[in-house]
Amino acid sequence: MIVADFVWRLLAAFACGVAIGLERQMRQRTAGLRTITLVASGACLFVTLGVLTGNGSAGVTQIAAYVVSGVGFLGGGVIMRDKGSIQGINTAATLWCAAAVGVLCGSGHYGPALAGTLVVLAANTVLRDLSRMINATPVASADLIRQYVITVVCREEDEIHIRTLLSNSMYSQPLSFQSLTSRDVEGAPPRVEVTATVRMHPKDQAKLELMASRISMEKGVSSISWSGTEVEPTPE
Fold first, then answer.
1. Sorted alphabetically, which InterPro entries does this protein's record hold (predicted)?
2. Strand 176-185 and strand 191-200: pairing?
């Protein structure tokens, strides 16, 4: 390899690193302009070393594999946990991509390196706005569940009957039965408050209303009410 070829590869890696790093720096990320430029340039230097030693494509491939491993440890350093949430995964992925661009430049593949740089920039700019639009859109109702609490106040002697009705209703409807509790209510005559907690899809709320209506007609029931919590996504 002549010196001019080496310089061109290094300059290409440097330029691609700067292009990717500028976007991260403007957003004030943990790994910014200097870090990403160094990663791209360092990856280029390592791969160029494989070319200079004359080990052929096998040597370059081995060095590239070690570069990927090393950048993986570096990326782990920019990932942080903040109040239960993970921060910095996108920056770590950007570092990984910058290393790949540097490897391409070191191998002399300028076209793919430029394409990779443009893809990374598009992912961090265009897709950023798109992801925000998606996050602002309400989640599809098919992916939602809600927790409901049903409260029935009845006579003390009807407690077992009401608990049985609630239990049978839970298992006969498309509900996820969570809990069933009872507690005494002060006053005369003696009353008992029976509380059932279920999880279900919001589209089945009408069935819950029907169940509550049926139980309200039972002898000894003085009141019945239900309420739903905030909608939450269904776990994967």
1. MgtC-like_C (IPR048640), MgtC/SapB/SrpB/YhiD_fam (IPR003416), MgtC_SapB_SrpB_YhiD_N (IPR049177)
2. antiparallel
Dihedral sign for Cα atoms in the order 213, 218, 223, 229:
negative
CA 49 to CA 1: how far, in whole Å? 10
Strand, coil or helix: what is 137? coil
Structural domains in the chain? 3-136 (no CATH), 141-233 (3.30.70.260)
Q: Give this prediction's pTM.
A: 0.53
Looking at residue 218, its pLDDT comes to 87
**Residues ≥6 apart with Cβ < 8 Å to 177:** 167, 170, 171, 196, 198
| Token duo for residue 214 | 């049926």
CB atoms near residue 159 (< 10 Å) = 19
Q: Are 196 and 166 in contact (CB under 8 A)?
A: yes
> What does the alpha-carbon distance between residue 226 and residue 236 come to, in Å, rounded to a whole number?
27
Q: How far apart are CA 180 and CA 198, in angstroms?
A: 9
**Two tokens at 142?**
């098919």
Name which of 42, 72, 44 is nearest 34 in CA terms: 42
The answer for residues whose C-beta is within 8 angstroms of residue 202's C-beta and 6 or more apart is 141, 144, 145, 146, 228, 231
